[in-house]
Amino acid sequence: MGSVANVAELDASVVKITRSTDLRPVPAPGSPEELSHSYCTDHMATARWTITNGWETPEIKPYGNLSIPPTASCLHYATECFEGMKVYRGFDGKLRLFRPDCNGERLLSSAQRTTLPSFRYEELKVLIAKLMQIDGPRWLPKDQPGRFLYLRPTLIGSGPHLGIQTPKEALLFIVAVPWPDPSQLKKPGQAGKPGLKLLASAPDTIRAWPGGFGNAKLGANYGPSLVAHGKAQAVGFDQVLWLFGEDRQVTEAGASNFFVVWENKDTGKLELVTAPLENQLILPGVTRRSVLQLARTEMSKSVGSLAPVEVIERDFTIGEVEQAWKEGRIVESFVCGTAVRFNSHTYYPRDMLTRYQYYITPVKVIRNGDVDMDMLEAGASRAGYAVQLKAWLEAIMFGKDGQENHEWSYIIEGESEK
Ligand SMILES: *Cc1c(COP(=O)(O)O)cnc(C)c1O
Q1: Which of 256, 274, 293, 396 to mutate to test ligand 1, by most ligand atoms within 8 A of the CB atom?
Q2: Topology of domain 196-383, CATH
Q3: Which residues lie below 8 Å from residue 79, measured CB to CB, with a gap of 6+?
Q4: Measuring CA to CA, which of 52, 164, 218, 292 is 20 to 30 A from 188?
């Protein structure tokens, strides 16, 4: 009794720093090291938790392998959750995170879904800032605005207890990974078409279900989904469009949220539609939330040549998409998420980079059974919502076009000298 109240909170205001004495070469854009998606920066952040003491003092230390017992809870019972974020080098020279408390809160709710320890989620961004104060200057040079690193905060059950039980020990760690950026790899115009090919899931394949955990960023969601993903890739598709239920509701695509812009068949007005969060079938994306907020505030009136859209979160089926497509009412559809994904298996030379996903990526085709729906053609003259939303987001992320002080930005001050 009372032990919960006495254990230490996660506190990133004080961290133990051990600097690397063996700095690694920073990979060039498009190099095999960068394309490996596994080459991390010089340092990582860690914080250990035990049920008796709570959170220990976080550390920033040289990047290296972890040591955990073969009986560690995460290895057997998938007590693991993670986040995907980025740190951006702005056009004003500053380092920024985009809405990091949204990721902190989501990591906390994922942790709770799999009995990992609770923490003050605001501390996540502080810990990332401390890591980036050290690695930012070398890995995202000030004179190279527009570059970013992918951040992977992860929480694992690390205790050795093999009996099935809630973890008694846990480890939070954060690594930063240079990530290929399509705009750096090829000259504009040569970069290939970013339109994605989505393969709708078959009725016997389900990603998430009501009462399940598809709305949490748990590692347990992804391994099993790779079977369908691999099959989709084998027939030339980029991602699975996950359908759910007898009525084939459209949920999300791969590890990104899915949106469609179509004309309402009764009113003739344009709608931006995406699946709702209430039934817990989709991951509540930070990009999804931002797209909804931007569209609601900025797109209720026309923007340039774009007609106003009504923004709607509701269940909708692949049958509705198909009907709209047959009737020429599809304007465009797109997916959104933080990670930039390339469509190749493990390694791809520059020239093979044909399709990619970049915050917000238009969908080119959806295959449902034996129907191939071209999502670009019919609505081409009215499309452009994805491009506009992406431009707004990019300005906020990189502090440009008058968005240097946007409320969604968290600026990392106090970078150390190289
Ligand atoms: C991470 C993720 C997303 C996108 O979330 P963002 O916060 O926008 O990056 C969407 N769907 C799934 C299944 C995901 O894992």
Answers
A1: 256
A2: D-amino Acid Aminotransferase; Chain A, domain 2 (3.20.10)
A3: 73, 114, 115, 116, 156, 157, 167, 170
A4: 292
The mean pLDDT of 8-18, rounded to a whole number, is 97
- Cα separation, 89 vs 126, in Å, equals 17
What residues are in contact with ligand 1 under a 6 Å CB criterion? 84, 217, 252, 255-257, 283, 285-288, 337-338
Tokens coding 10: 């996660």
pTM summary value: 0.94
CA of 408 to the centre of ligand 1 (A): 18
Cα(25) to ligand 1 centroid in Å equals 30
Give CA–CA dist 312/309, Å, rounded.
9
Alpha-carbon dihedral angle through residues 172, 177, 182, 184, given to the nearest 10 degrees: 140
For residue 15, how far is its CA from the centre of ligand 1 (angstroms)? 29
- What's the sign of the alpha-carbon dihedral 58, 62, 64, 68? negative
Digit-coded pLDDT (tens) for 137-146: 999 999 999 9
- Looking at 3.10.150.10, 3.30.470.10, 3.30.70.1890, 3.40.50.970, the CATH number of the domain 16-179 comes to 3.30.470.10
Ligand 1 atom 10 nearest Cα: 256
**Residues 6 or more apart whose Cβ sits within 8 Å of residue 189:** none
The residue whose CA has the least distance to atom 12 of ligand 1 is: 255
Question: pLDDT (tens digit, 9 = 90+) per residue, 375-416?
Answer: 998 778 999 999 999 999 999 999 999 999 999 999 999 999
Give the amino acid at 171: L
Q: How far, in Å, CA of 47 to CA of 130, rounded?
A: 13
Work out which ligand 1 atom sits closest to the CA atom of 288: 8
